[in-house]
Specification:
By secondary structure, the chain is α+β, with helices and mostly antiparallel strands. The chain is built from 7 helices and 25 strands. It folds into 2 domains: 245 residues, Alpha-Beta Complex (Sulfite Oxidase, Chain A, domain 2); 110 residues, Immunoglobulin-like (Sandwich). Strand 10 and strand 11 form a beta hairpin. It is globular. 47% of the residues are buried. Bound molecules: ligand MTE and molybdenum atom. The ligand Nc1nc2c(c(=O)[nH]1)N[C@H]1C(S)=C(S)[C@@H](COP(=O)(O)O)O[C@H]1N2 binds next to loops.
Length: 438
């Protein structure tokens, strides 16, 4: 189906963009917005999310790097609401509460999906958006200004793929280095809620690379986001970007334009994000604007100073850039959940791994003294998680600790203690979940 916006004159797009910005800023009433603008907006975000409880976006002049794409950066950090019962807000980020996953099914509803924003969510006009590929790994080595471009309708006309995959921050579980192991680490103090599972639909990155003229010289591809430049400790690190080896890029990476059967929500990368199954979340660049394809290895702060393992237990100067996620388990329970003694409760949780599939899940309700197998409720799939349950009949009242540990098909088992690294990545130890028996 031809996209009605693709042939629109530039000044009309600019006019709509300004008008939409005014509306988002509260300077224009909803009935002053064009029907088309409204529909585009409603397609991406639930109407209630924009009308009530949404941070007021400030209309800022787009930077040169994002001109022609960003409609209105939000002044809060997300477009969607972050209700207290679903999220714990941590700076510019929000983690999903595990108790909010109870009963949600295999896929995490997009409204409850965690958000990790280096800055804040940009609202991008899909009609003006183009994916631009350039670099020495493409035929003719196009410079950025001679990039090969694809519009959203062009990507949508290519063969589509759909797959379920979890997306998990490399720092998920980080707070437990301090709370369980008494160790200092830097970074966002996530508990275990920096993970979600979604059904992603899009086009294979390999397909787009082929059409852009990929050559055998290519070694790395580096997608870059259209969100604002990231300033950390007074230093401007530029826009979020992280190289991927071409082998992974060609294997299973998706340029996703749908999440759980809907256009990507603004906060999760609208109109298009990279989705790198099984790898740490930073690989899955949101709001992708361009991809450098290079015949020489690429570097950015996100594969040099960040997202590598530093510290006493690691090679001098740091380990290699992180790729695959590790193995973890979590209970679908609030911290401090209460249980009645003398009754049988069904405990629920989920386990997942970045390598192979989940093999076994065991639960301990006596602080790690004894373990029994949990009943697995899903077929284990690569890049998936397995929901499980186990009955528990507490006898004694007072505080208790629930533990869950998983093993994957590569032979990895969650350890009692995670090997420390300065930035607190890849926490994989068994988490001791505190509850109270009454
Ligand atoms: N452009 C851009 N892409 C990004 C980020 C970002 O801040 N900007 N954060 C990354 C990190 S660290 C993670 S964990 C995931 C989070 O994806 P989500 O917010 O959709 O859950 O997006 C990644 N992609
Ligand atoms: Mo992350």
């Amino acid at each position: 189906m031809p996209d009605p916006d693709s042939a629109r004159p530039q000044d009309e797009i600019a006019y709509d963009r300004g008008r939409l910005g005014q509306w988002l800023d509260g300077d224009a009433r909803a009935d002053g917005v064009s029907r088309r603008g409204m529909l585009a907006l409603l397609a991406a975000v639930p109407a209630a999310g924009l009308v009530a409880g949404t941070p007021r976006p400030a209309v800022a002049a787009p930077t040169a790097a994002t001109a022609g794409a960003v409609v209105a950066p939000v002044s809060g950090t997300t477009v969607k609401p972050l209700p207290e019962e679903w999220f714990r807000v941590l700076g510019t980020n929000a983690e999903t509460r595990w108790e909010a996953l109870r009963g949600t099914g295999y896929h995490t509803p997009s409204e409850r999906f965690f958000v990790r924003n280096h800055t804040s969510t940009p609202v991008i006009d899909a009609a003006g958006w183009r994916l631009r590929l350039w670099g020495s790994g493409l035929r003719g080595s196009p410079a950025p200004e001679r990039a090969v471009e694809f519009s959203l309708p062009e990507l949508r006309r290519m063969p589509a793929v759909t797959r379920s995959a979890f997306l998990e921050c490399a720092g998920n579980g980080r707070s437990h280095y301090a709370s369980q192991q008494g160790q200092e680490v830097s970074g966002t103090a996530w508990t275990l809620g920096a993970i979600g599972m979604a059904r992603w639909r899009g086009v294979r990155l390999s397909e787009v690379l082929r059409r852009a003229g990929l050559t055998h010289r290519a070694v790395d591809v580096m997608p870059r986001g259209l969100d604002a430049e990231f300033v950390s400790g007074g230093e401007n690190l530029g826009r979020v970007r992280r190289p991927l080896p071409v082998a992974k890029a060609l294997h299973d990476v998706i340029l996703a334009y749908e999440m759980n059967g809907e256009p990507l929500p603004y906060d999760h990368g609208y109109p298009v994000r990279v989705l790198v199954p099984s790898w740490i979340g930073i690989s899955s660049v949101k709001w992708v604007g361009d991809i450098e394809v290079s015949a020489t290895p690429l570097y950015s702060p996100w594969n040099t100073d960040l997202y590598r393992l530093f510290g006493a237990a690691h090679p001098e100067g740091g380990g290699p850039p992180l790729g695959r996620q590790t193995v973890k388990s979590a209970f679908e329970l609030a911290a401090g959940a209460r249980f009645r003694a003398g009754r049988t409760h069904l405990l629920h949780g989920r386990s997942w791994t970045g390598a192979g599939t989940i093999r076994a899940v065991e639960v301990s309700t006596d602080g790690g003294g004894s373990w029994r197998a949990a009943r697995q409720l899903d077929v284990a799939r690569p890049g998936g998680w397995v929901r499980w349950s186990v009955p528990w009949r507490p006898r004694r009242t007072g505080p208790a600790e629930l533990l869950a540990r998983a093993a994957d098909s590569t032979g990895r088992v969650q350890p009692a203690e995670s090997v420390h690294n300065d930035q607190g990545y890849l926490f994989d130890a068994v988490v001791r979940h505190p509850v109270t028996v009454r």
